Each structure stands twice: as structure tokens, then as C-alpha cells.
Amino acid sequence: MRASAKIFWILGVFFLVVAIAYGIITARYEPLGIETVGFPAMLALAGLAFMIAMALSIAVRRHDLGASEHLDAEVSDDHGVQGSFSPYSWAPLWAAVGGSLCFLGVAAGWWIFAFGIIFAIYGVLSWVLEFSSGQHAH
């Protein structure tokens, strides 16, 4: 996990440098100024790489190192619990349906986008609050 975190930190810096260079070049040579799709997309790509790198770095600090950190480790050395997952949860399905309806709504019609937002909010909230047992539970 430590190597993956380093890779994503490097990717984040690379995408940030490329985005800044792209913004400068398009601002200088485009007749209308900075290109309005590529520059924000590259900034978002850098932000996503930084978020993944941060999450992996935090996970490395919190948990013990797995077998993937040792050069002489075998695949079978990395057995055991990989996380806490809810096997019978419907929340990922509703979140995925909401996301797909949002994308379809952008292409086909904005009224579909509204239904996608409703499904996505329901799916994400139920996924986040899935294991919540209330504020005052003991």
C-alpha cells in the first residue's frame, strides 16, 4: 500500500503540473482564453489522484503493513480479513442507478437527471448510514 500511495502522490503532482502548463498555454494561444473543458478536467484529475494518495497514506499509518510490503512475501501470506462489507446491501445498487440516470439525463433530457439525483441521494445516504444505530444508542 505504501508503494501505491507514492505512485498516486507522483501522479497527482504530475497532473497538477500538466494542468497548470495546459492552462498557461491555452490562455496564451486560444482566442477565447483558457480552454473550458480540459483545464478543469486536468485539475479534477490531479485532485482525485491526491485524494487516493491521501486515503492510502492514512490507511498505511492506521493498519499494519501487509505482505505486499515485503519483497520475499508470497500471495498466500496476505490472507485474512480485507475489510467490513455488507453482503446484502441494496444501497450500492441505488447509488449506481442514480449515477447512471444522472449521466443519461445529461445526454437525453434534464428531467431524467432529476430522478437520478433522487436515486443517488437515497443510495449514498443509505450506504453511509447503513451501520448507524442512532445517536443515543448504547
Automatic annotation (TrEMBL):
Localization in the cell: Cell membrane
One Pfam family of this chain: Cyt_c_ox_IV
InterPro entries: Cyt_c_oxidase_su4_actinobac
Annotated GO biological process: electron transport chain
Keyword Protease: no
Keyword Membrane included in the entry's annotation: yes
Record membrane topology: Multi-pass membrane protein
Reaction(s) this enzyme catalyzes, per UniProt: 4 Fe(II)-[cytochrome c] + O2 + 8 H(+)(in) = 4 Fe(III)-[cytochrome c] + 2 H2O + 4 H(+)(out)
Membrane spanning stretches: 7-25, 37-60, 93-122
EC numbers, comma separated: 7.1.1.9
Keywords: Cell membrane, Membrane, Translocase, Transmembrane, Transmembrane helix
Function: Part of cytochrome c oxidase, its function is unknown.
Family: Belongs to the cytochrome c oxidase bacterial subunit CtaF family.
Subunit structure: Associates with subunits I, II and III to form cytochrome c oxidase.
Name this polypeptide is given: Cytochrome c oxidase polypeptide 4
